[in-house]
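Hi C.,

You asked whether I'd gotten around to modeling the 377-residue construct. I have! Everything is below, sequence then structure, no commentary in between.
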Amino acid sequence: MRIALVGTVSSSIFGFRKMLIQSLVSQGHDVYVFTTDLTAELKRKAEQELGVKARSYSLARTGMNPISDLCAMVSLSREFGKLKLDLVFCYFSKPVIFGSLAAKLAGVSRCYGMLEGLGYYFTEEPGGDGLKKKLIRGVQVSLFRLVAPFLNGLIVLNPDDKDDLVNKYRIKADSIFVLGGIGLCLNEYPYSPPPTTLPTFVFVGRLLAEKGINQFLGAAEVLEKRYKNVNFHVIGGLDEGNPGSVDVEYLSELHDKGVIFYSGPVSDVPLRLKASSVFVLPSYYREGVPRSIQEAMSVGRPIITTDSPGCRETVIDGVNGFLIPPHDLGGLILAMEYFINSPECISSMGVESRKMAEERFNAIEVNERLIRFLDLK
């Protein structure tokens, strides 16, 4: 079959979709990959190393310019028509919306969409959502309702998203399939015994309020005063134009005082996880199933995260970590304190995390389930 994968940035599709692409190519399918930031070097690597045909398209990742989005949709539809595709698989909100409309216009017989979490506009803020956010969420819901009949199936990563789409927002798709986490190559994140003599708590993610960075920094500031045998490590990129971005001066102040160690974005995440003891993500963002947690579980680290959509799929409370309420600084401090005072539990809960990663987040098995749902096997 002639199959197109339509995503956003190349790092996502060639990184997180690599094993899926390899499976499709090995089955003899002709695979085309569409990204919004394709470079000559990425195109060469994709075609030589993965055996796919890489294409660029112009859909903006963010923004609400309908003229621009419609022009991108028409251009994408023309490209689909030239390629005479049999199946289009889109993921992330805007590609699902405009990619599926493009497939319909091009006469592609089969189209599937995947939402990896409902995202920022469906994330409930602690002080309530503003009018702009509510309006944009309403537009997104209307567009989901528009395109759902054109999809042969819609894939989500957690049952909360399915429940909200069907019952709260009344999205009517032929089939909504809960995949679970997209998974990872477990061999790239091998188990290693966690350090326990000097417990190190690590946060990995975008440094945004909705990801829980402020709670992590607040907990570090409190616990650093109570205990001298503990470290706090922050890994992730700044997003200073984002209204939810961390206060950079506060972050720098804590780093300069030695309360935390901030390394910025890094390329050696497995090694950083290996040097950590406990993984912390106090997110209230509408996650799918956070990949960062899956990576930490594979390495064998206990998890502290929130009892919220997506995050709760990674923890059995008290077995491989703890679930805390969103926005609960006190609950986060208590959970982190538990590991400081009971370091022997770091190892035992870490082993349970690895077992759960093997059972739930092995990308080989996840991709097999996805390929069966796409009826490609």
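If it helps when you're writing up: The first helix runs from residue 10 to 15.

Thanks,
B.
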